[in-house]
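Standup notes
- HV: blocked on the assembly model, inputs below
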Amino acid sequence: MDVIQTHLLTKSYRDEEAVRALNLSVGQGRITAFIGRNGAGKSTTIKMLLGMVRPTAGEATILGTPISDAERSCEVRRRVAYVAENKPLYRYMTVGQMIRFARSFYGDWSAEIARKLLREYQLPADRKIKSLSKGMRTKLALLLALARRPELLILDEPSEGLDPVGIEHLLQTLVARSAEGVSVFFSSHQIAEVERIADHVCILDKGCLLVDTSLDDLRQSYRRIDLAFSSAPIGEEFRIAGVERIQTDGRHLRVFASRNADIVVERARDLNAISVEVSPVGLRDVFLETVKEN
Amino acid sequence: MLWYKAWLETRSRFLASLCGITAIVVLLVHHLEDVMRPVGLSGARYFVALRRSTGDIFNSGQHLLVAIWMLAVILLGMGGLIRERAAGTSSLTLALPVSRRRLVWVQIAVGVLESIGLGVIPWIAILITLGVGGFPVSFSQAVFYLALLISGGLIYFALAMLTSSLIEGEYTAPAVAFGVAILSAMVCGTVNAIRPYADLWRFMGGDNHFSDGASLLRGPFPWLGAFAALSVAALLLLTSVAVIQRREF
Amino acid sequence: MFFTLTPTSGQPLYLQLMQQIRHAAETGALEDGDQLPGIRTLAEELVVSPNTVVKAYSELEHEGLLELRQGSGAFVTLKRRTRSRTDSVQAARRRIRDLVERLREDGLQDEEIRRAFEAELLYAAEAAKR
């Protein structure tokens, strides 16, 4: 069962369409990453899922509950932990008060996890939140989400504001939670992090879902093929299913394909290519190429 | 712990207003004690005059209290989810497993309790000051005044809640609320057609019941008027709840 | 034992893990009966999704190299067949080592060699399909 499912989810504002007919599925027990440029519609989508913004059209379910059902959505929020991009906390509370506040809402709160993270993150219980550094605020916001033992973790840019050690620790924590069955849905600009821990990636641009694939498939299928011919080739000859982008430069051709790289290679040989070089494509390049072509 | 959060959010405003109001009112009462202590009288006549002075002091105290109380409760009605959106914490509050309705009603409840406190405690201070000064105090009169203040004045709190659910600016919202409150007070106080029904100042100040002869509030408590005023307040509050429910964050 | 997974190498991480476990078994670094870390432990250590470890372990169990015991973990089970395979793999490795050395002497860079192998394997796979 998918923990998140959207069907033609749309959000239009007066001057732009933030999210267009989005069909998104986030699988249960998986780590799914949501990447896109700033303003691509990631935060808007998440806000619609959590009932903070009303969709213009389409529908969605989160943990099986339709987002339009206000009453049941309230209960679902007990099982979903969300940390917004700005890591919101009540500045007038102390660390201890904030923890007690959060704890009072969730029956599944684990005091043990809270204590452990408090110690690991070295958060002083008596300090007022407004006097914490950005990194410590991020850690506290994450602590509040993790100690709740949710079924679904939605994180918007979770590593922002953390130093490399903090980031490593965060990734380990997410991986550990995933091993316990928690579904993780996070958006990030840190492609390297995504590549390490995500099972599945969704690339959003201008409100549309351009890529929706498992990272295994991405690694296996996306290829960059550099070809050289004795005379200027016709690029369009290589426009087959799976070819996303073709660049020509004199006698050289660069093909970026999401699949069927082998067919591209075969066609290149049929057309007597002088050189054929196939290289794997990392997620960063997949993202950049996909977004550029859009 | 929503109540605790609402308390923490309004605590400074409440305590500052409480101290300010109490201090100002006590100062006035203390000053009036000197001015209105009857001279050259003795025995029963002195006591009657003293009681009359108490009534006048009560009246003056109430008028001053109404003015500053009104401003204070408007301040108490500020904040809320729209303000949280500007401050960036609405994503946290709205992600809680509680309905928006409950979030707003808790804020309302805390605000109403604080508003009542801002009336009760200064009145206790008035009674104590007068008692210490040797003036006879009438609890029933004090309660009458207090009831007029609260029942008539909660409209201002409700107005502030509604304004803060519509307007985001940290200074714009209270400015608009003050503006509307003062404007409506002026209109209701001058337009003859609605004056008898809608002059809240007179209502809250006790002018409708004040009998000059004995400087006392006379007559039955205006239950209908109080009910009408509280109904208007309730309506404004329900509207603010509805506004928040429909808003996008 | 220590593993290194490269997210950018164009090969799914679970396949990389499988290869490294197989390689260790072939060269004797892992012996029959050795225990591999639990799924969660290994995932946290390598900082990869537990699903990667699950896939790798399941596939290897399917191949007969690992035995997953409920509650105790994953154990290496080297069969006789795998042992003789070790020899052929080691012989192939030697040949590839010589070839790579010669290509390097001819002036080819490692990246060029890798891409050439990649293209050749792709072409061979396509030819095999036909």
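- HV (later): unblocked. Strands of chain C lie at 35-36, 66-69, 73-76. Chains C and B do not touch (no CB pair under 8 Å).
- Next: hand off to the docking folks.
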